[in-house]
TrEMBL record:
CDD domains: MnmA_TRMU-like. Residues 143-145 are annotated as: Interaction with tRNA. Residues 202-268 form the tRNA-specific 2-thiouridylase MnmA-like central domain. It comes from the Bacteria. Keywords: ATP-binding, Cytoplasm, Disulfide bond, Nucleotide-binding, RNA-binding, Transferase, tRNA processing, tRNA-binding. ATP binds at residues 6-13, 32, 125. It is an enzyme of class 2 (transferase). Residues 278-359 form the tRNA-specific 2-thiouridylase MnmA-like C-terminal domain. This is tRNA-specific 2-thiouridylase MnmA. InterPro entries: MnmA-like (IPR004506), MnmA-like_C (IPR046885), MnmA-like_central (IPR046884), MnmA-like_central_sf (IPR023382), Rossmann-like_a/b/a_fold (IPR014729). Catalyzes the 2-thiolation of uridine at the wobble position (U34) of tRNA, leading to the formation of s(2)U34. SUPFAM superfamilies: Adenine nucleotide alpha hydrolases-like. The active site is at 101 (nucleophile), 193 (cysteine persulfide intermediate).
Amino acid sequence: MRVLAAMSGGVDSAVAAARAVEAGHDVVGVHLALSTAPGALRTGSRGCCSREDADDARRAADVLGIPFYVWDFADRFKEDVIDEFVDAYAVGETPNPCLTCNEKIKFAALADKAIALGFDALATGHYARLVDGELRRAVDDDKDQSYVLAVLTADQLSRALFPVGDSPKSEIRAEAADRGLAVADKPDSHDICFIPTGDTRAFLGARIGIRPGAVVDGATGDRLADHEGVHGFTIGQRKGLGIDAPAADGRPRYVTGIDPESGTVTVGAAEDLHIWRITAGPAVWTSGVAPEGPIECMVQVRAHGGLAPAVVTPTEVDGVPGLDIALSEPLTGVARGQAAVAYLPDADSGDLVVGSGRIRSTSPVPATPASLDA
């Protein structure tokens, strides 16, 4: 096969490209220039897409003996990922930009260009596995990225390769060193790649501006503090609330609700965060076909953690497919804009990704689909 290997400049994508070469594919490396003004150097493990990253990717391609190109996707990335990220926070959501990047950049814009140029597949350094065309968790649970890939359609998965998903990270680094790849010990990227400072609130504030509102006690309705915009808050947040006095009972307060229209941020106790029901959509079923009825599975609501047993029922509203999720035990920190991903547990082959949808609403009231009632 002709394979286009997306090379970020990190160790995972370098080894993914190397394994694609070793498998006998005709491989070409490509680095995506996603910033209109890339920095010269990374700051430790923060950020990516610097000129240093592009140079690291090029050196890895040279070691592998494959052609290498840099493609400019900066405008598309700003429009589809950064602008959407800012817009989501402005309406009280907490988006995951990695989901959007995979959905609209790497496995849409990039993959489409690859196919148009005659490539058969796109290889990336994501930690996930494809088994008989089905998306499953990676061997390394700590590095698993199936959650941020659950937005991919069956067609997108059919032209994807995840060569490192069957190995733990330690083996990937050791393999990179054995292959003479200089990125073997390069730190992993953390935080949001286009906010290298790590200060998301400042990044959003510079783009959204000041939109004052109140921080309100959910139990008493008392105004506890003023704020400069709902973009500075997310569900489950405990620090940075601007509240001077402790709660009457001395317990910590958490953000339990965000109303972008009024600018009201509601805070309450930890138990006020308990969520029993989630609606999400549009639904993406990784097999390409929705389940015929409710399914018992595990649901994950954020990239790290937030996992609980549930019954997921396919829905359709105004022709748009969705998911109705009845949790068997409550989850906390469930924020609109994140993804809800349904998995079927499989100890032998890795948990199977069934489908996903962006979280649209939540409820603290337990509910069970009628079709599964006793």
